[in-house]
Design brief:
The complex is a heterodimer of chains A (481) and B (302). Chain A has 481 residues and is an alpha+beta fold. Chain A has helices at residues 3-14, 19-28, 33-51, 70-86, 97-109, 122-128, 138-141, 158-163, 197-203, 211-224, 240-243, 246-253, 274-290, 300-308, 319-325, 368-378, 381-390, 399-403, 405-414, 418-425, 439-454, 460-477, and strands spanning 61-67, 89-95, 117-121, 165-166, 180-181, 184-196, 259-261, 267-269, 314-318, 336-339, 354-361. The chains are: A alpha+beta (481), B mainly alpha (302).
């Protein structure tokens, strides 16, 4: 490498030049962006190696269990850098999401030492943690001998970081003082609105600012866009996945909760309040009037593909689902726009519930220190920047990536409103569920109740009363209520 | 001339029977260990997410079923599903088998072609039907609209979800019954039929008094296989509706799967499975007893 280029790279790595300045500078020296990228990665590898003994576990091999996902793709694309940096080897199995968590449950419940680390959602750690299947990562994060001094744990978005930490007590607040860090957030999704601007213009519909407007806008879009297009896509399958996206984000905006936690730590159902009933009525009405006809079978995939194919005018779901539908070979690629959504007119800001793809360490791993080396690299700033700017690693969990000009520019160019949406809703973004071991029982039954309400099998008030009664019974039976 | 030297490897006559039955014994153990483990689990309060609360609660998991409307719904829908699918598949299978009874190359070709759905994995068949019943572009939704059924919601409406999964089951499994009954029909002795033809006996009389009684062992076998399979249905229902909408299709296996893999409630899941085992044990006993009785009667007549 020439001296000038070396100096510029070192200046960047010292923080004296920003990323864009660096790429521009290298460009002026006659280097193409791709070459600059390679040099930068090399430089970073060199810089990382300077302050920390990355080679401490040289020659060891760890094995990962991965879900087929753009985050995993981005990691695999960057894996050579890790191998070069540490001299370690990494092998992995990738499974599609339909069977992924069954595989994780099977491997962990059998105490299998096959996998050292794996991808998981934060909700799942509420089972894995108390079951003794995963390790509290504080032990490594807080140990300067084992963690790279540039790791910058404080750089993670606080709401996201806290959402991955729980003290294991049913109803215990996420991110409390005594919380265990069950997983490291990797990438996450906020639930907001992704919409088809041309369809909104055609129907003369403005962006909805609250729940009343959302219901009305969805109905008008269904009526006026034509061609069988329906107004709003939300999930509806008989699964926890129906509750956690748009539904819970809007519900939480009205200050409603899933469970009450009493002073003595007992849990009870909290969804039979008058406010909750009013919200459920609106939600059910919106699906009946303007949702997909076979809503009760809708998962992430159907909600996304309908938007991407131009069969729906908007979705109230994961922002990154909208992001993916705005690219690739989708019919509506490049035509979608994004907006934060605040359901409650009286609320100050949006309160999106979040899904966090995270990395957990198996308690049955044979070499936890070596596994941590991989985990800190995969959640480190350099890999996050690589994933966010070169691949589809959205939404990154590190604030420094959101401040990166190249990343913001990439989003602003092709994803109108995405950055503003993110900035508006990130401060209020966190997991809105109560952490407790019956999470999946509760949410699956909630989804089944919503299905009954939408199918008019049960009135909303009666349905919620029955749901609360059933959940209270289950909590009592499990010794939690 | 030398006699062949006996090999040094000898098994005493007393050990031999045990040795020969060893493979069967091993298989038996392979089945019994998980079975007995499930029985033990079913008597425990056992959630993987609450390891500290694990303890024997003896019959509590079972007793709670009696007052649990969800369990009765599961029992009802499982039996209903099994009854409807097996009944309809028998009627259709028998009808098709009778149409193809005559040996001709065309009939043989058709019977082989009709086996195609049986070669499709039920989960894939369910996904195919999910696409065909899609309200936006599904061919079946289009056909339904042609006969005036606008907005027919198939598996996504509680009123038609059972019908939809039953249709898929019939599509996949009717060929199974058809091929068994066709083999039965073609192996029946011809004399009674020839005698009936000579006497000019009406066809309905031939069917009810000759064909059906002689075919009964085959019908019983086919019904037994299908009934045991159908009451344990999982893939078609889970792939199409995950047990929904609401609690419309929460059959045993779907409920047990969700209890184990999603809620990690091992105790309840195991108890559900043991009850399902008891039902299948009871049903198979009835069928096998009847089948044996029929065989005895046939021998007695001979």
């Amino acid at each position: 490498m020439h001296e000038k280029e070396k100096d510029l790279l070192d200046a960047f790595l010292r923080g004296q030049v920003d990323r864009r300045g660096l790429i521009k500078g290298l460009g002026a020296m006659g280097l193409a962006a791709s070459t600059a990228g390679v040099l930068l990665n090399l430089g970073q590898t060199r810089a990382l190696a300077a302050d920390f003994d990355w080679q401490a576990h040289k020659g060891k091999t760890i094995k990962l269990l991965l879900n087929k996902h753009p985050y995993a793709d981005a990691m695999i694309a960057d894996l050579d850098n890790f191998k070069q940096l540490t001299g370690m080897n990494v092998t992995y199995d990738v499974f599609p999401e339909d069977v992924y968590f069954d595989k994780v449950t099977a491997a962990l419940s059998a105490s299998s030492p096959e996998y050292d680390a794996f991808m998981t959602g934060a909700y799942m750690t509420w089972t894995y943690g108390p079951a003794g299947w995963i390790t509290d990562l504080n032990e490594w994060i807080k140990d300067p001998a084992k963690t790279n001094p540039k790791y910058a744990w404080d750089d993670f978005l606080p709401g996201v970081r806290n959402s991955c930490a729980w003290n294991g007590k049913p109803g215990g607040a996420l991110g409390s003082e005594d919380a265990k860090q069950w997983c490291i957030p990797w990438g996450f999704e906020q639930n907001n609105i992704t919409y088809n601007k041309a369809m909104f213009d055609k129907a003369g519909v403005k962006l909805p600012g609250n729940m009343d407007e959302l219901v009305a806008a969805a109905a008008k879009l269904t009526k006026d866009v034509g061609g069988g297009v329906y107004g709003i896509g939300v999930r509806g399958s008989r699964s926890w996945a129906t509750i956690h996206p748009g539904f819970l984000s809007a519900y939480a905006n009205f200050d409603q909760k899933d469970l009450n936690v009493s002073a003595d730590g007992k849990l009870s159902a909290a969804m039979a309040t008058a406010e909750s009933k009013a919200f459920h009525k609106q939600w059910v009405q919106m699906i009946q009037e303007s949702g997909p006809k076979d809503w009760s079978t809708y998962t992430w995939y159907q909600v996304g593909t309908d938007l991407g194919a131009g069969a729906s005018a908007m979705i109230f779901d994961a922002d990154i689902l909208g992001y993916f539908m705005n690219g690739g070979s989708n019919k509506m690629a490049g035509q979608l726009a994004f907006s934060a959504f605040k359901a409650n007119p009286a609320a100050k800001a949006p309160t999106p519930n979040i899904w966090i793809w995270s990395l957990s360490m198996s308690n049955f791993s044979k070499d936890k220190d070596a596994t941590w080396y991989f985990m800190q690299w995969a959640s480190g700033l350099d890999h996050c920047l690589f994933g966010a700017t070169k691949m589809d690693f959205v939404n990154p969990v590190r604030q420094a990536v959101w401040k990166d000009e190249m990343f913001r520019e990439k989003l602003n160019k092709s994803y109108p409103g995405y950055v503003d949406m993110f900035d508006a809703s990130a401060p209020g973004a966190s997991i809105k569920f109560t952490a407790q071991p019956l999470f999946f029982d509760l949410t699956t039954e909630w989804a089944a109740t919503l299905q009954k309400m939408v199918a008019k099998e049960v009135p909303v008030d009666e349905g919620l009363d029955k749901l609360a009664e059933s959940i209270n019974g289950q909590l009592k039976e499990a010794g939690l209520g | 001339m030398h006699r062949a030297k006996p090999s040094g490897f000898r098994i005493s006559k007393r050990v031999l029977p045990y040795l020969l039955s060893l493979p069967a014994l091993l298989v038996c153990i392979g089945i019994l260990i998980p079975f007995l483990t499930s029985v033990v689990y079913s008597f425990q309060r056992y959630r993987l997410s609450q390891p500290w609360a694990r303890q024997f609660n003896w019959g509590d998991n079972y007793i709670s079923f009696f007052t649990d409307p969800k369990f009765w719904n599961t029992l009802e829908i499982s039996l209903l599903y099994a009854g409807i699918t097996v009944g309809l598949e028998l009627l259709l299978g028998l009808g098709i088998a009778m149409l193809l009874q005559k040996r001709s190359s065309l009939n043989n070709f058709i019977s082989i072609m009709l086996l195609m759905p049986l070669m499709t994995a039920p989960a894939l068949a369910a996904l195919m039907w999910k696409l065909m019943t899609n309200p936006g572009f599904g061919v079946l939704s289009y056909l339904a609209s042609l006969i005036g059924l606008q907005d027919f919601r198939w598996a996504s409406s509680p009123s038609t979800a059972l019908l939809t999964v039953v249709l898929v089951d019939i599509w996949v499994y009717t060929p199974f019954i058809m091929i068994l009954l066709l083999a039965g029909l073609r192996s029946l002795p011809t004399q009674p039929f020839e005698a009936a033809a000579l006497d000019g006996v009406p066809r309905s009389f031939v069917f009810f008094r000759i064909t059906l009684p002689m075919l009964t062992p085959y019908i019983l076998t086919a019904t037994l296989f299908r009934l045991l399979d159908s009451i344990q249905q999982f893939d078609i229902i889970y792939a199409m509706t995950q047990g929904g909408p609401g609690d419309t299709l929460t059959v045993f296996q779907v409920e047990a799967y969700l209890n184990f893999f999603q809620s990690t409630n091992v105790g309840r899941s195991a108890a559900l499975m043991i009850i399902l085992w008891a039902i299948t044990y009871f049903l198979s006993n009835i069928f096998i007893k009847n089948w044996l009785r029929l065989r005895e009667r046939a021998r007695g007549q001979a």
